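#onboarding

Welcome to the new folks! Below is a worked example of what a typical request in this channel looks like: someone posts a single protein sequence, and someone else replies with the predicted structure as tokens. Don't worry about understanding the tokens yet, we'll cover that in week two.

Example request:
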Amino acid sequence: MSQAYVPIAVAAILAALFIVERVAPLRRTRTRLLLRLFINFAISGLAFLTSMMVVRPAALGALAWTSRESFGLVHVVPAPAWAQFLVGFALLDLGFYYWHVLNHRIPLLWRFHNVHHLDPDLDVSTGFRFHFGEVLMSTVFRVAQVGLTGVSFTTFAVYELIFQANTLFHHSNVRLPIRLERLLNMVLVTPRMHGVHHSQVRGETNSNFGVVFRWWDALHRTIRLNIPQAMIEIGVAGYSRPGDNRLSYALTLPFRQQRDYWRKEDGTVPERHASALAGSRTHLAE
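Example response:
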């Protein structure tokens, strides 16, 4: 697959999801759309430049070396190309699951990842809203990920396209018929599943870390699907004041003294009573 087609395909998916979420929104929005779009695309633009200038060349360099040396996990056991593709694809996605968990568990990484979470609404424009510092620090992870897996250029390109497409999809505010989404969610991370991850409730934010496949959350017992979307307040409790989502503030936030992330300005800590839950943790709520 030619890498040139990836940004074109991703742009088309973004545009399509943006239109659909205007027609069939999953959650009510709380803030002005145009201002949020400006902030999100400005943050995303800096992230994109950082990725193109640093992360991507480093990852492709590692990919060239592993391909030349036949190094990496997919080469440990001789297997046909299709088997190496499937194993490599799964390993890349598992790697991103662990990287996402680390961004929540390591305080330094969370300072930067918090910029993604403090968006007061969640839609397709949030999908690429990552602080350029977070993207820059991901360079080490990306080189290690590609180096250890040893995937081919084809596997890398296909995964990149599906990774970016599903990132946009599960961040989108698209209301799918619940039966269809439950069917998709047997394999993929979907909007309702990822909506829980952007909740202001700490235990819900620290769940549903998957990017493409939902299996890694099920395997590691970090899956939480039984919270109705109407009950979810999007954002970060400690950064939900008016003005917290200004562009200049978001870009400088990681370098500022940090607040208590889980406590609102009035001192309350968002919690979810068990009576509000809809069935088991693995049952996707409406």
